[in-house]
Amino acid sequence: MHNYSNLGSSCFQPVLKWTRLKSNANNREVDYRESFTLSILRGISHELRRANPNLKPVSQTTAFSYLINEYRKHQVTEKRTCKSAEELSTMAKTYLCYLQSLRENQELIDRYHSHGERSVEETAKLVGFSLPKSANEEIPEKEI
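Given the sequence above, the corresponding structure tokens read:
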């Protein structure tokens, strides 16, 4: 069995069980599926904003408009139109994971592949090693 707990991506987070609980304050039912779905939508909009920081606001993009329309279309009739109860949320989580992975991939490419040829010292530091001091460098003597 694989342990994905050390991975930073939220793609491998465990699937939550959905329950309805009564709130003590005003005795209304709270659907945690809706709040979790909204958090996924916020995450997708955050990733879209990070992917295009110099463009127009995310709310004015066609991708975000399409996403909002899909959420509204499946808001009430999710159980009736979807093949499974979690199909829309699974698709949204997959899209969020895809956007996060694209961003992390671009960060890794920028970090490791954009510098051209590196010196031996830089390469050693990159993989976590340090080079031994050369014989030409003087080693300071300890005072007793």
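Residues 108 and 114 are 10 Å apart (CA to CA). Try to locate this feature in the token string yourself.
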